[in-house]
Design brief:
Layout: H1 26-35, H2 66-79, H3 83-88, H4 103-110, E1 118-121, E2 133-136, H5 138-142, H6 152-163, H7 168-175, H8 179-186, H9 192-205
Antiparallel strand pairs: 1-2
Helix pairs in contact: 6-9, 7-8
Amino acid sequence: MSFQEKPKCYLASCDLPSRGRIGLCNKHYRKKLKYGDPSVVVCDTGKPPLHTVHGRSSTKYSPKDRTYNSWTSMHWRCSTNTPKIKRIYKDKYISVCERWRSFELFLEDMGDRPEGTSLDRIDGTKGYSPENCRWADLLTQSRNTSQIKLKFNDALAISFLHLKGKTMSQIAKKLGQPYVRVYQICKRGKWQDAYEMAIAITIGTGI
């Protein structure tokens, strides 16, 4: 039976083991619940400095702020040893930049998360940093994943062949594309703009 090392607290200054999916040790998790910031430094009076309390963490009194949720999720993805997630992030050395250890600096760089978006890495081979991140909607992110390396012209070629009467199996074989990807385009589940352009060109040129 192999021993699996427990993930550590995602705060750079802490080497204590984390509470599983939360990504924080017990000490910093309690600080997050009480003060809204796990990295807060408590003074002798038992109260943190006012500027460190952002009031955006999840408590039993208020729902979790979506920007703060994105920040904590980002840290968890890069620190967890959960096999399916670890394989995508930790094993590929995807990490969070030192600046974004602070939620306040993350908020300063990214601003509030717009509704209908989530945190997206522009270059999927690089980590989380101000230069490589943006708020993106689901469609933008689906085209940016490492599992879907498809360009607009490829989707257009699939659309043209389908309009010419080729079966999806024939298209997949001819272009060397996975059948599932061809199916999604032909059924307009993805790349609808490419299919619509193919229709417009076909009608306009009489192909």
